[in-house]
Design goal:
With about 200 residues, this protein is mostly helical. The chain contains 6 helices and no strands.
Length: about 200
C-alpha cells in the first residue's frame, strides 16, 4: 500500500530531490551544508525502507518498483547538480559518467529480467558501492563552503569527495559487470528461459 511506512520513506526520498536541488542551486555555505543534510537523510531512508518492509512483512510490488527509481533519481539529480554547478573537477566528471551509465545499464537489465520473471539480487559489493556513492555525493554537495559551516574547513572536502566518487565508480564497474554477465546469461538462455 502507498501509505505503508516503507513506501512513505521511499516517496520521501523522491520528495527530497527538489529541496536538495534548490538548496544546492543557491550556492551559499549554509545552503550547501543544508543540501548535504537533505541528501544524506534521503539516502538513509534507502536503508530503513527496505529494513522496515522486511521486518513488518510489508514487501510490495509497488515498493520494489519505487525503491530503485527513488535511488536513481536521487543519485542522478545530485550528480547533475554537481556537474551543472561546476562542483566537480574535470577528472571528477569521469566517475560521474561511469556511475550514470551503470545506473541506466542496471535499470535496463532489471526491466528485461523482470519480463522473464527473474530478479537480480543486490550483492554485498553493490551495498558497498551505494555507501561510497552516497558518502561521496553528500561530501561533494557540502563542498568547501559547507565544510566551513561545519568548522571542517581544514579538510580538503572536495578532494575527499572526489576520491570517494572514484572508489564508487570502481565498485560500480565491478557490480555493473556482475549484473551484465548475469543478464546476458539469462538472455542467452543459460537458465532455460531465454528467447525462443
Amino acid at each position: 500500500m502507498l501509505t505503508d511506512l516503507p513506501n512513505l520513506l521511499t516517496l520521501s526520498r523522491i520528495a527530497a530531490i527538489p529541496v536538495m536541488v534548490l538548496l544546492a542551486a543557491m550556492r551559499t555555505p549554509d545552503t550547501d551544508c543544508a543540501a548535504m543534510i537533505v541528501f544524506s537523510l534521503a539516502g538513509i531512508t534507502d536503508y530503513f525502507d527496505g529494513k522496515l518492509a522486511r521486518d513488518r512483512a510489508q514487501m510490495s510490488d509497488l515498493g520494489r518498483m519505487l525503491d530503485p527509481i527513488a535511488d536513481k533519481l536521487l543519485v542522478a539529480a545530485a550528480l547533475m547538480m554537481l556537474v551543472g554547478l561546476n562542483r566537480l573537477s574535470p577528472a571528477g566528471l569521469y566517475p560521474a559518467i561511469i556511475i550514470m551509465l551503470r545506473e541506466i545499464l542496471v535499470s535496463g537489465l532489471r526491466e528485461y529480467l523482470a519480463g522473464i520473471r527473474i530478479g537480480l539480487p543486490v550483492t554485498r559489493l553493490a551495498k558497498w558501492k551505494t555507501g561510497f556513492q552516497m558518502g561521496a555525493l553528500g561530501t561533494l554537495l557540502a563542498g568547501a563552503s559547507g565544510a566551513r559551516v561545519l568548522h571542517l574547513d581544514w579538510l580538503p572536502v572536495p578532494a575527499i569527495g572526489e576520491s570517494m566518487l572514484w572508489v564508487a565508480a570502481l565498485l560500480t564497474i565491478m557490480t555493473g559487470w556482475d549484473y551484465l554477465t548475469a543478464g546476458l546469461h539469462h538472455a542467452s538462455g543459460g537458465d532455460g528461459q531465454g528467447r525462443d
